[in-house]
Amino acid sequence: MGKNQAADWQPDSWKQKPVSQQINYGDQEALADAIEELRQLPPLVSAIEVDNLKAQIALAQEGKQFILQGGDCAESFADCNAESISKKVRLMVNLSLLLSQKLKKPISRIGRIAGQYAKPRSQLMETILNESLPSYRGDLVNHIHFSESARTPDPKRMLQGYSYASLTLNYIRSMLESDLDQIYQLEQETENLRNLKQSKKLHQSLRQFQEMAQMFHTFNGSQPISKSLMEFYTSHEALHLHYEQALTRQDNNGQWYNLSTHFPWVGMRTASANSAHIEYLRGISNPVAIKVGPQIEPEQLVSLCKTLNTENESGRLTLIHRFGHQEIAKKLPALIRAIRAANIRVLWCCDPMHGNGRLTSQGIKTRDYADIQSELSQAMLIHAEEGSILGGLHLEMTAEAVMECTGSSYQVAESELNQAYTSLVDPRLNMSQAFELIDNLDNSIQKDSVIRQLKY
Ligand code: PEP
Ligand code: CO
User: Which of 90, 132, 162, 282 has its CA 20 to 30 A from that of 168?
Assistant: First the structure.
């Protein structure tokens, strides 16, 4: 038996456990057919790539590397086109370069991409004008349009999702192999900024960054800066267990891997002890993550970690914490201490998005930039104070000039939210807001190093 390969686990052993966020397919035969067809199709990623990412996460756990995970809340099939994919990849690569300049560490890029098609929902039904229909559960399950036929879960969507994930990944791979000039370009992106309102500081930093990218390029000619810059990993929420199971494959050593993505995570709503989703994650060899919210108690988290990382392997388990700016200081320190006391190896990653959602008086879902920045700064400070390492950042963001999150130097007012809001589920940072967040890390890092000097 290899690492994390429990003898009592099978790709379908999750079926013995309670499944929350279950999808109700009317036609069980059509479901079985779609699963069988998926099972015959080739994997989307390789076990070697998955192991490489695990090694990078292990380095991030030691503070030698940093993970940037980001992308849409819900990826859509319609966005599977060259322009949209290339903008997403460019945003991730450019942000990671800025981040490496700030943190003085290599950055691993993990997109919420090429399969982020299934969504958990707090309300499983949606009611509009007295009509109640199943909520939109991601393109892998149903269509966002509010009609009975669109909202009825269709198993064939799993096959479409597999195809779109494959097309997306294929395009990302070809871009990274050949299109480095394109990737560095920031001009196009800066055109999207609201120049007049944008702070001087952000522009200066973008210019500096652009010069740096050009300088690297001059030194390296048409060659890539380094092989590591060409690495790009995929991740998605492992929510739809039928889909995940069908793409779970055994390698020559008998190890099971989820080969639909490099880095599957289980969301906060499905990460309870003894749940089907935790049971599924337990047996695959990928690096895996769970979302950690304010409800979880230290003992529960320790127990979950022991289930998911039985051999205490480095790089295996990431805890993506998402408390909200008002809760993080109350909750995070106790969790860090409990994990340390139990001697469990994890990567701590901050998701400053999901704990900061709010509804406007008009009922629009938004997040305020200041709350997001506050949670991230607090996360850096708390980890520094606790002598632990914050090794990753998880963002919902887009390269499109949307207005979904309020505030920032982009000055998105609540009244503007309906002007450029295209997210299918949660509000994302636009490119300017994402750059600003990274740019403002300076303040937190300075405080972080002061605290470190005082402590050690
Ligand atoms: C998400 O990442 O889109 C999500 C639903 O997160 P969480 O499980 O943390 O609420
Ligand atoms: Co989300």
Answer: 282
Which among 322, 349, 429 is the best mutation to test ligand 1's pocket, defined by most ligand atoms within 8 Å of the CB?
322
Given ligand 1 and candidates 426, 428, 429, which is best to mutate, with the most ligand atoms within 8 Å of its CB? 426
Atom 1 of ligand 1, nearest CA residue: 73
CATH number of the structural domain 13-455: 3.20.20.70
pLDDT recorded at residue 2: 43
CA of 165 to the centre of ligand 2 (A): 18
Each residue's pLDDT tens digit, 282-294: 999 999 999 999 9
What integer pLDDT is reported at residue 90 of this predicted model? 86
Supply the DSSP symbol for 406: B
Band of the pLDDT at 456, cuts 50, 70, 90? very low
10 Å Cβ neighbour count for 274? 11
Answer yes or no: is pLDDT of 442 > 90.
no
Tally Cβ neighbours within 10 Å of residue 231: 15
DSSP annotation string for 246-266:
HTEEE-TTS-EEETT-SEEEE
Task: For ligand 1, atom 4, name the residue with the nearest CA.
Answer: 267
CA of 291 to the centre of ligand 1 (A): 7
Q: How far is the CA of 351 from the centre of ligand 1 (A)?
A: 9
Distance CA 231, CA 313 (A): 23
Beta bridge partners of 163: none
C-beta of 120 in contact with ligand 1 (< 6 A):
yes
Q: Report which ligand 1 atom has the smallest distance to the Cα of 425.
A: 3
pLDDT tens across 139-150, in order? Answer: 999 999 999 999
C-alpha 419/C-alpha 402 separation (Å) is 8
**pLDDT for the residue numbered 310:** 96
For residue 218, is pLDDT > 90? Answer: no
* pLDDT above 50: residue 303: yes
The token pair at 371 is 């709350």
pTM comes to 0.93
| DSSP per-residue letters across 255-320 | -EEETT-SEEEE-GGG--TT-HHHHHHHH--S-EEEEE-TT--HHHHHHHHHHH-TT--TTSEEEE
Atom of ligand 1 nearest to the CA of 291: 9
Q: Are 185 and 213 in contact (CB under 8 A)?
A: no
Query: Maximum Cα–Cα distance for the chain, whole Å?
Result: 64
User: Is 120 a residue whose pLDDT tops 60?
Assistant: yes
